[in-house]
Design a protein that fits this description.
Layout lengths: L1 H34 L12 E7 L10 H10 L7 E8 L3 E8 L5 H22 L11 E5 L2 H17 L14 H5 L19 H8 L7
Antiparallel strand pairs: 1-3, 1-4, 2-3
């Protein structure tokens, strides 16, 4: 009887430990999600923003082509609140050019946090790692002129050139440049309104070859 009582106590104790550890993991995941998007990030309807973040400690964000595609496809969650005009994923960071569609910015901030937090949890599980993957706060820089918009469009597409990953922009799969020049939508509907600022696609391609320095 004494042995059975001790065994019962041990089982209960182990159960408590499992519950506590599980609760801690859930709490850590929620904290990680919350920290990826700052409450100071402000969005205003019909305005354009450069949305970007990078990994902590220069870690890789993407370990395979499947990681890149998985991350991009998750971004369709923001399309209810914002149009995506351009994007580029790099091994350690990402860039998006977005246009806000709604007055209510809280759901957009939450959607961005959910995307980054969910992706972090996927990579942590896949790579057997723990903790944050992205830097603490995602940045959203307001763009105030058409000239700045066009420059940023090219800068985003030129990221692989700046990092010397490719020699030609079109050789990098994980930017919207291919969607522009080949008239595709590989991951989500893309707002290509900025193409109207060029006479034709050839002019867009030519302008894309003029290197834009870091903005």
């Amino acid at each position: 009887m004494l042995t059975d009582s001790i065994a019962g106590v041990v089982v209960q104790f182990c159960y408590i430990i499992v519950v506590v550890v599980h609760s801690f993991e859930i709490g850590l995941q929620l904290i990680t999600t919350a920290k990826t998007v700052s409450r100071d990030m402000q969005f205003y309807k019909d305005q354009y923003y450069h949305l970007y973040n990078r990994s902590i400690n220069k870690e890789l964000l993407f370990y395979s082509e499947e990681n890149y595609v998985f991350f991009l496809k998750k971004f369709d969650k923001i399309l209810k609140y914002a149009d995506i005009l351009a994007f580029c994923l790099m091994p350690t960071h990402f860039h998006f050019l977005i246009k806000i569609k709604t007055e209510d910015q809280i759901p957009l901030r939450r959607a961005i946090g959910d995307i980054l937090g969910g992706y972090s949890r996927t990579i942590n599980k896949e790579r057997n790692r723990t903790g944050s993957l992205f830097q603490q706060h995602t940045k959203a820089k307001l763009l105030t002129s058409e000239k700045h918009l066009i420059a940023l469009l090219h800068y985003i597409h030129q990221n692989p050139l700046h990092s010397r990953i490719v020699i030609n922009i079109k050789d990098w799969k994980f930017s919207s440049y291919i969607d522009y020049v080949e008239d595709k939508e590989r991951y989500f509907p893309l707002n290509k309104q900025l193409l109207q600022k060029f006479k034709n696609i050839d002019e867009f391609v030519d302008d894309s070859n003029y290197i834009v320095e870091e903005l």
